[in-house]
Amino acid sequence: MSAYFHIADGIAWQLIRGEIHVSRRLYIGESVKQLDSSNLEHAIKVSLEINESPENFALISDLTHFVQIGDLLTRTPKGLAIMELKEGSVNNKIADLVKKIHDTGFPLKDLEDEISNLDLNTNKQLQRVLRQEERAFRAVEIINKDEGNDPKTGEKISVSTPKNRTEFYSHEFEKLFKKLESSIWAYDVIDRGCLHVGLYRDEGRFMTGLIKDILDKKTTNHVIIDFVSIAGNVSEPLFAKPLPPKLMIDILVGDIKLIIGLNIDALIQVFKDTGFEVELLSEKQTMKLKQREKMKVMFIINKRAIRLTNPENKKTMIVGGGIISKILYDSIYPSNIAITLLQTLE
Fold this sequence. Notes:
13 strands, alpha+beta, single chain, globular, four-stranded antiparallel beta sheet, 2 domains
């Protein structure tokens, strides 16, 4: 089943044209949903009808990990769209009410009477449909305009284009993969000691703890991932990466283990070398910040957050989980991310 999720994520990534800010708007932090047979049949029927035209493509959202708004993600000559699918007499009634709500010419008193006559469960379902519709509208607005309200929080956001070119290190995986032709493991340290990358096959898969052992000797401030966990993150999917197909499949089925370790102390030094003032906040400061910024996902290492400051204008930011995800799962060089972040605080 995991393979299907990976493939569907790759297709969705193509539909959104590889724009990470779009994928983050489509993800609202829900657990992966499972379609019942009735909903699945309906979703398949509608998607097949849309896909009859070679100019259109519809993907069932629940087959992916990160598309959590709407039932279908579609791309047509008109652009990207999100569709909610409803069937049954109650849903038809709700759909009719939603149309009347949006019809400015429909008498308000009649609409209020219809809603007041709904039973409790139907009224709750109507409110749920309206929330879903609002989320979809917000997501599409950001996709098309690069600005709008966040689908989950409602906060005003604007997507800016980075001034510098994004540089990826995924080609380093291919270098290590070639070394596996004559060895059961391959290992390298890249980008000023920030990233420790290891590939392991056959008996070498029992050596995956080596990177942890190496980093433990250097610092307690580190993060280590098994790259197959990319499926649980809002990031560039495995099948969207410019890697040899055999390597991607071997990682997916577990024949090869790709382990990445991020040395946070080395990352902090990269931030400093780029021009930031960097502060590793105390546990008390971090706790207060968490309470104040409840909707924001901070990166916390050993109970401490990292604050970056541009010394020229004293603008600050807290390192978020998305930044670490970009390094580990989107395969962006830490030094490249540091430059981009400094530009955002200019």
